[in-house]
Amino acid sequence: MNLVILYANNNENMSNFFAEDLSLPGDRIIDQKQAISDKTLKINLNKNIYGSFAEIGAGQETARHFFRAGAASRTVAKAMSAYDKQFSDAIYTVEQDGRYVTESRLHKMLDHEVKLLEERLDQNEHPDRIYFSYANTVATIDFAKKFKGHGWVGIRFQNEAQGEFNEIILHIQFKENDVLLQQRTLGTLGVNLIYGAFYQYHDPKKLIHHLYDHLDKDQLEIDTINFSGPAFKSVDNRLMSLFLVKNGMADAVMFAPNGKNILPANTLFRKNVLLLRGSFRPVTIVNINMYQKSLHQFLTKNNLSEQKTAVIFEITLNNLLALGEVNEQDFLDRAELLCALGHTVMISNFKEYFKAVDYIWNYSQEKIALTIGLPSLIEIFDAKHYTNLPGGLFEGLGRLFKHGLEIYVYPFLNENDEIITSKNIVLHDESLKPVYNYFVGEEQIIDIKNFEPQNLKIFPHKVLQKIWNNDESWQNDVPEKVAKLLKANNLFRKKDSL
């Protein structure tokens, strides 16, 4: 049976219906793509939703949808754009770095606009109103079409009358090559975000999914999103990062040791980068030894400053899917340990190393290095991993090493207890040895020195097996801090749940 509901702009009864709909539990929200005009009209007809719009850089594209839908006076307290830099600075103050498309700028916009709502609107006159402020600060594609543009978008809102404010902040990268298309995309995204804040906040994953209503992933990428406030007190933003990558909304996301999602561009911009890829299930003393030794060699060899060097621990989606479906608790266990050790974590869908290097190069043209185990180096020179490239293995190697990449290699202990390094390595195809030797000679493949031979038999999967078997010797294979966390939080204990 199909149900069709017709409504008019000034129907007070329909407005009351939507007000009641606001309180529906998350699992009763209709999981269906609604027309943008339907979303804006539904909000406009809800007499209790009221707020302001502040949009800088791409026109008042979001507010325009609400004005076109009709009954906008019920929703829009103010809509503005401060395009002139002096006007913008006078309203929102000056940024220390002089930039305008920043997260800091967006927060200042939301702070200012919410303050005005509270100062200028009489809550006693409308005790049932819930207020919001939507803002964006955006740079669209430049005239030369060299930089496609990006922006910060956010909403601060109440989900109950006179309640505390909640916040959703996201960063987007435009992919379209036309400024008008980017403006329309931004407007659609803005409507989806505002609608989601009021009608889908019970289920943040559903909210994120519906941000792409009437949009395609080829139009924009969401590479950072953070939820905060009482409505999202149970939300782990690291899981929201994972959701973005898992659903193809972002190629890679990052989160800081405090668990907050951070913008990859800000983390990598003009930094030397050391990237460590692994399962980290769990982090072992070998992982830490690889990190410490390779970082020291990388800095010393290139005369680099540690303060200007970003160390990134990368977990690929392919690694997380090795168990079948992505297990969120397993992911959080890994993330918990890395964050506790003070590391920045990147989740990516880069199966091939050259894609990770290309991604980093987009944000930093400084020195880039990889730290890997010797078995991974053997796989890099295996042609089967490059069948999807027209130039095969040679194209893959060219893309990997073209930016002067350095690979720091941790040795491997084979079944004969022989230590294998880059010097005595055996490739799958030994005819590639001259190519391999070229990169060794150019010092782009470098052995990690001063490693600890007694630890070469430590592997994460063996440590995990010890934990499952209640073999307490696993504590000798991980850093002391990791051992304490593993025991205190009972991490990786349930084999059947993984």
TrEMBL record:
It comes from the Bacteria. This is TonB-dependent receptor.
